[in-house]
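Recap slide: Phage protein, sequence and predicted structure.
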Amino acid sequence: MAKYYIKLEINGIEFQIQTDAGTEREAKDMAWDIIRDRTSFLSIRKDDAREVQSSFSKKIAAGLKSALLL
């Protein structure tokens, strides 16, 4: 077995994973296992862009209605 050092970059941050594997393929598989085991979701948020646009368009429509009523 040999030591393999796998470097990866996520959003400009470099990470290095060290594995003891027999082949490069095995090292890559071990790296994916390490990533899966040590990665957790901190939060999941819904993109509210459509809702913001919707409320913005409602505000414009209401503003136009009030302006036409004057």
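The helical segments are 24-38, 49-69.
The CA atoms of residues 28 and 60 lie 54 Å apart.
(End of recap.)
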